[in-house]
Structures are given as C-alpha cells and as structure tokens.
C-alpha cells in the first residue's frame, strides 16, 4: 500500500534519495579499535632476575620492584623519554602508553633512575604521516628525549624508522607496521598480526585440523599478513584458504558461515580482527550452532578477558588464541608487579595485553638506563638499550634482547590461551613461531650468532 | 556436476544458511525502512539518526542487563521507550523551526543528531567488545538442515507485522488518515482543522520506538558496536529509496531483498568483498527503472 496514493506531492524525493545516499556512503567510509586489590606498589621484593621466564606459571607471588625500589620519591633533573601513539575514533592504543606511564610513576615513587625521575612525554597521532614525522622531530629535537619507548601506531614505524636510525634512537615499541620488525632500530615486545596469526594457525594444525580458513579484516596490509599463515600451512602440508571481511562487520552470521564453509568438515577457522569485530563473528557462529563444526583460532587481539566475558561459557575451550604475552593473572613476579601498579597508578586502564606491553617496555628501558654510568644522553641511553640481552620476565615466553641486527623480532615464541568462564586462561605452553617464515629463520640465526637465545 | 558448480558458484547446500541470515537482517532493514518512510511521509523529514538512536537504546539496554541486574524485559522496554522519547524530543524541538525548510536541510539536521549520539556512545562506552545477549538467540529449530534461532524469526515477523499494522493504521484510524493527509498537503490539512503538531509528534514517537526495537534486534544479530549500528541505517535507507519513500509494502519487500541479496553474495568469493555495495546498486537500478518515464519525458540533462 502506498501511504501517499496521490501523485501530486511536491517533495523532490528522488533527488533527496540520491543526495542522502551519497552523503551516507561517504560517512560510512569514514566510520570505519579486575584489578588486584593489593596495595603493594612494587617498592619492595625481589629482582626480576629471579623470575622464571618462559611465560609459564611460577610458584612465586612476590612482585618485582620498580626502579631502585626504595620507596623514596625521585628528584633532580628528569630523564626525558618519549612515545608516539595512535589515538583516533575507532583506534585508541593509549592503554599501552598508559601501562608504561604507570610503571614510570612507580619508578619515580621509588628512587627513579638512580635518583632522577622519568618525564614521559606521550604524543598522540591520527594516522597522518606529516603529523607523525613532525612529532618525531618534536620529541627528538625540541623536547630532547633520550629514548623512545612505548610507541604504538598504525604507521609510525613506516614513517619514522629512517629518522630514528639517523638520530641514533633504538626504539623499544609495540609494532603494527611491517617496518617495526624489519628495520635495525626497532625492537617490539609483541610480534604483530602476521606472526601472531602464524601462531594461531600452528596451534590449530597441532590440534589436527584438515584445512585452514584464515579470515581477516579487509584493510591495507592484508597481503603482507596473510602471506604468513599461507607459508606456515604450506610448510605443514595443510590446505589453506584466505578470506577477508569488510569492517565494521555488518553481517556477522554470514561471515561466520562463509568461514566455516571454507574450512570444511574437520577444518579450522583462524580470525585476525580487533576484539569487537572478532566477537561479532564468533557470536554469529554461535547463533548458527557452528562453534563445534570447526576448531576456532584467533590472533592476539582476542586475548582479552573482555572478549572472554562477552563470549560466555559457550566458548569454553573452543577458541584458541595466540597470546604474545602471559595471561594477566600469571603469578610470576613481573605479572604481580604489573597488576599492582595498574591498580595503584592507572586504575582506569584494564588489565590486558595492551597495558602489559606498555609495562614491560617501560621496565626493560628502566633496567637499561639504570646501568648507564655517567650522564644519560641520547648516545649513552640508546647504547644501553641496544645492549639489552637476556632480560628475563614472566610476561614474555623467552628473554628479551636488542643487539645489533638488520631486523628485530625478539618475541618469536608464544603461548595459547582459551576462554574459560569469562577469563582467558592458558591452554598451551610456549612454542616457537614457525621458521618456515623467512624473517623468523633469519632472526633465529642471528640469535644463535649473538648468543641471544 | 551441478549448474552452480559449473559456473564456479557454491553449491545450493552452501547457499541455504545464507537465506536465513539474509532474511533476518533484511527484516530489520525493512522495519527501519518502514519507520523512516512513515516519518518522512508525515513530517517531510528523512531521519538519518534512526540507526544512532536505536544504537544508543541498545547500549542502554546492555548497561541495564549487565550492570544493574534489572530483568531483560525492563531493558527491552527502556530501549524502545528511549528511542521514542529521544526522537519525539528532537521532533518537538527542531521539527517546527525546520518545517518550512527543504527536505535536504531537514535530513542533514538529523545527521547532526546522529553524529552527536555516535560521539556520545564512543565517549561513554569506548570501542571494547560487548554483546547484547537475548535468550531468543540461544534456541531455535531446524529447517531443511539450517538452524533458525528465535531472534531471526522475531526479526522477520516484526517486519511483516509492523508493515501490516502500519497499513491498517494508516487506512482505518483518524490519526492514520491525518498522516496521509499531511503527506499530501500540509497547508490544506492544517486549514481543515487537523492538529498537525500532534499528528507529527505521534509519528516522531512511533518512529523512534521502532528505531529502539530495530537497535535491539541489530545489537543482537550484528553486534553491539556504535558505528556499525549507526550506519546500518544505510541499508535501510536503500530499502526506503527503492520504495521511493512512499510505500511501506514496497519498503518491506525491498528490505528483505536487500538483506537476502547481500547475504547470498557472501559465499561467492569473487564478489564477496564488494557485497556491501549491493544495497546501493539495487537502489540505483530501482530508481533508474522507476524514473524511466520521467527521463523519457524530460530527457537527460
């Protein structure tokens, strides 16, 4: 039935329709990223050198310490450190720099870096290469920071890596762009979407799947990422189909069905999405009764209790997530300190991989700077960072190192987690990312040559 | 080898589950489209904030269910009522001053509301993963080997039911007759003694309640994500455009078709990445087809 059966209306409906469609299409393109109650701030307890490493549980529940751990506020000339972080609608990585700042606040309350407080300057960017380049110059030339720690940006490594190399900065960061793992002056504490997807594929292959369907968001860089799972599956003799889905996902049920059909009976589906998008697909699968038809895997972003809570118990033990860092309730000393300082210095930041990454980066750099003899300059600070070797922590599977190399992938050993009643728990101990990946093979050779592994 | 396989397409067995998901989503597109068409016909306003209002209602429902312990039905009613109240408030405040402006100005004004609500949602709830669980999604039945859950049934049923009720209401009630009269000529209707403001207010309120219901269903069927729910209005708009913003029955059929075509393209890997365009391709083809007589008469300029 026509609401308006008469033809004499004067509203220019067709023209309006066309204009509105164009406006909305443009907008849609634009539209489209608990706490421990302990009061121990980390001012006491034993050194991280006593921690287990290996990412596995230890019997210790004693926290590591912040800096000198003397409970005395630091004074004197601050040691300036800097970071560049993406913060824009839909993509906000400031939990990482927030985690780093929490640790530095704790260091400042515990004697600082040999008595000097840390001044941590965090610059936010909105994926504008010009802006990112100018922020790097601002930090290095205006603020005169001595080191870069906590960088996490969609494109910062691509834009700035040559600048940092020219200026002699050795970044410790959390990577996203490929240059974060393929250039000499960047050593991320994470391994990024490609190698994390590799890890999820390896896990499902170990669990006996006959075929893999790897599906990720349809954004720039998918070709680089999907090459990893393809190499790993091929090396294992397992067929693989790679798919993409437009984000934000508007028809999660269909995406889930498509992935399950591509995997086939006895197959496995590996997702590489942000947590909200992965959640939509997993719930779409659940609504269609598909969670038992294949095995499900996911790269690191799924390793968050927030996602586990949203999934509920229906997914207990049915989703295998590659985790680049230890589970947040690991009893190791660094994990205990991490929970304590987030609770005390950054209570609004959730426990999870992001704040863990910031924490561990800050801890590595603090440890390195405390070994500097004499003035802390750009040269002495970055020499100390480059000298980091065998840094043991229960948050990473194996000790962190920097060294001199054309590329750095120090985190190349991961574990697997799975949801259990609203929390992510460990499913599988640390395992090595496949050296069928050419750059992983190179890094393993470098580790052997430099005795870093 | 089947004809589908010969053409390099998935088998019929592979297509079957997409029919259900497509019809369910299409049902919600149709519901939203019907709400938009009725409001447009009555007030001359194309409400581009339809999705954002529903999304905010769905977030409030999520908050109530997860953090207040209130029963789910209270959250559902609150979501629907919230949609009605917010839309009515906007209509009462901005409707009269904009009444004499052209339709495009009125539509862009609602876009402002949509962006404000979207910003508010991002600010309050960030972009963390959330899920709006409805018990109707946890049970269902099988049809020819395809699982159908009750939320999907409700989505399709709501679309058909809403359309039937709207048709009856517009034809057989005084307010409905007044709405149809307003659609034809606002000035003459006013001079005949029809309480224009009251009739328009009722259209704003009912349309808002429909947006709340659609937001709830989409929050469950698609996921609780502010941007996704806000911009899903685009597919609904395509359905309304196919109906040229003046037929609720055609809007229903178009909404179901948009959802179905979109879903059926998913398993065809060669075009799957581009299927989000399908609502607009369908709308463009429909508008060109429906305008062919005008084009013949006036020529293309």
Overview of the molecule:
The complex is a heterodimer of chains A (453) and B (301). By secondary structure, chain A is of the alpha/beta class. Chain A is built from 13 helices and 13 strands. In chain A, helix 9 links the parallel strand 10 and strand 11 (319-323). Chain A is globular and about 65 Å long. Residues 1-15 and 17-60 of chain A have low confidence and may be disordered. The radius of gyration of chain B is 20 Å and the shape is globular. The mean pLDDT of chain B is 88. Chain B contains 15 helices and two strands. Chain B has a two-stranded antiparallel ribbon with strand order 1-2. Chain B starts with a helix and ends with a helix. With 301 residues, chain B is an all-alpha fold. Chains A and B meet through helix 1, helix 7, helix 8 and helix 9 of A and helix 2, helix 5, helix 6, helix 7 and helix 10 of B.
Please summarize what this structure is.
The complex is a heterodimer of chains A (453) and B (301). With 453 residues, chain A is α/β, with parallel strands linked by helices.
Shape of chain B: globular
Q: What oligomeric assembly is this protein in?
A: heterodimer
* Global outline of chain A: globular
N- to C-terminal distance of chain A: 74 Å
Helix/strand structural class of chain B: mainly alpha
In the sheet with the most strands of chain B, the strands line up as 1-2
The whole-number mean of residue pLDDT values of chain B reads 88
Order of helices and strands of chain B: HHHHHEEHHHHHHHHHH
Tally of contiguous helical segments of chain A: 13
Name the structural class of chain A.
alpha/beta
Cα Rg of chain B: 20 Å
* CATH class (first level) name of chain B: Mainly Alpha
Name the strands of the widest sheet of chain A in spatial order.
8-7-9-10-11-12-13
Provide the CATH topology of chain B: ABC transporter involved in vitamin B12 uptake, BtuC
Largest sheet of chain B: 2 strands, antiparallel
